[in-house]
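User: Now give one protein:

AI:
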Amino acid sequence: EVQLAESGGGLVQAGGSLRLSCEASGYAYSTYCLGWFRQTPGKEREAVVYSGTSTEYWDDSVKGRFSISRDNIKNTLDLIMNSLKPEDTAVYYCAAGIGPCTQRPSTADVRYWGRGTQVTIDS
């Protein structure tokens, strides 16, 4: 059974940092791309980062501020978020899906979702 276990999230001031962690289990690491999506009320869920074994896609709005830490053995993907802005406020979801992992994915590409974790940036 594939499971995506998320941790992290919370409330921080604008300009601050947060780290989200996702531990995937139940499949071999290279089977799926692993990434993070986010969603705000009334909007579609959109990809923040989508990662393969050594390459990834990044949304333009977070380039230069967010980074990832990947452990291919433990099958984990941490999202490190710096210089946070109020517009980063969203529910963040860990996702495992089909590739290519270097192109912007849609929700239709995702095969498994985490439960989501709230990130709130206070201005």
Notes: The chain is about 0% helix and 50% strand.
